[in-house]
User: Fold these one by one.
Assistant:
Number 1:
Amino acid sequence: MAASQWNKAGTWEEKDVSAWAKDTISGGLASVSTQSAAVSSVDSVDGHVQVLHVRGKARVGMELTIKLSWTGIRSDLNPPVT
């Protein structure tokens, strides 16, 4: 995302991208798993995310709270326990 044409000096401009970020984070976390844990569900993603243009440079500002459910796997037991 580039700064607006009206902001030639590139001083300060912000755009809310919260909806996109929440969808992207929820979708990405839903498929996370390792050998010892897996995300069962993404319960909520709350907060805001903004793309800021300050002095001609794009920056991201965010404040998010993410709640998820997960399961752990004890692979040292035979059979493994979840």
Number 2:
Amino acid sequence: MNVRLVDPSCQGHERIADGVEVLFFASSLEFFPKPKNPAGEIIRLHRVQVTSFEDKPQFVCKVGPGCHVSFLLFDGSEEGSDIPYHTSTAKYSMEKERELGILKYMRGWLNNRDAPLMNHKYLQKLFELKSGEGPCDILCKVVQVRRQKRNDGKEDILMFVWDGTDCVPQPLRSGTAESVFESGASLATELAEGWGSLELSCEEIKSLKPPRIGTFLPVCFWSHLESSIPKVGDCIRLKSVLVWVHKGQTCGLFSSRSNWSYHQPEFMVEYSCRTLNNLVSQWAPENTQDLLTTTDYEHIPWSTLREVLVDERPGKYRVLVQLVAYLPHDYNDWCTKVGNGKGEFPAKLLPSIGASPKATWIYSCKFLLRDATGTIEALLTGTSAEQFFPGLPPLDPTKNNIWKKTLDTRMQHLLGENTSKDAGEWIQCCVEGYRIQVGTPNEARKYRIFGTMMKPIAPASHVQAGSGV
């Protein structure tokens, strides 16, 4: 177990401005200190071993039966009791006049301090993370922990953390392991791919009652932790975490030099402000006029894709997203002939997609949409597709190269291929969630785009990152 301790002597100190790390070791979790709150409690330690790590003092405490270190835990609030609520041994002694005076002083300092408790030199929000800039610290909340057994019997750990901000969007297929880890690049990549997916599944998200805004950052644990790991719901400070990009996703790496400690959820104030103002993206253009699309429902408040994913009911949403991929890859397959033959779209189903009964060809494609909270595949077909691509009606693509060239120009514009934006452009669109094969084992929730139209292509304007919408 790792704990960070501070007292008034830490403020402004060159070596311990961020506090002193304490490593607790015990034969069982039951012997560790059990603070009632993640931060702000008061502890008295006796007979600690003083060592150093990276030129900073560090305390080592072996607790439990047969160990010499003892501790007392006190409530840190000003009205807290002078009797410890957790002790390492049933019997203990205190120099009441002196130690109760220190306890009173510490409570007054904790609850009335003007300066922050920590040095923010290495502290970064998820919004600020950049690959390859060296180790950093992250204040965050643990939203999920995955475990899987290795062949040697130890566990691999994948933790998802959140602080209410959005990671920088990355190109879908980008990776920076080679530049960040040098000789360990292949191991880092193997570690990430060993989990199959570094995103929470829809089922996991639904079980969490998650916050609607903000990235869930995956943190891979490179080395086995001898101490306990944080639990879901804990607010912690991750320390000396490396950052890299794996297949377009920002990731954290908890290495042998990393550590963690409990901390107060200071990021909740900023999250509450974002939620109150419905600021669903920190990287999209501030002005909707700078988006590449318009919708028929611009009066509808924004939803995040996480909200779309967890809502099991049929529903319609307006989302602010990036288009990062599409299917089919071949434009020749984007339109389907209406008819009764093999591979043709049945004429009797045209009303179900809002198409004219006289239609001879219909669009049939899928977009992969992404925001800071998730990704969805959304179908674009029928009159919704004709609205999306004004002036480009569906036809036989194999016989019209001008049509395909025009479509390609528009798609490359939507993907941001011809702009300076590394991770693509932003669009708004209306998405409908619906269920298919209801009441059968194959029942599933699907999504389709409607009520959205692409604007005419114009010279790209510069959008400053972080303006927020």
